[in-house]
Amino acid sequence: AHEQLTKLADDTKKVWPHTGRELRTGPPVTTITAMAKRTNADLIVMGTHGRTGLKHALLGRVAERVVRQAPCSVLTVRTKSGR
Question: What is the reported pTM?
């Protein structure tokens, strides 16, 4: 995961030089929102499958909670569900 994240970040920095990357462990929502607060992030970008029931028809549970709790804007990208 670290190697893939490093390559993705390096490629992204060619276009957006101020892009950061972090690889953390812990409860996803708490970890993501705490990092955004600590770094004064402008934007959180995250993928979602969007397939966890009627209430979560558009976003997955983690993505929905991050959107609600984040201190900045959140861009969600629907990924392929593999179905």
Answer: 0.71
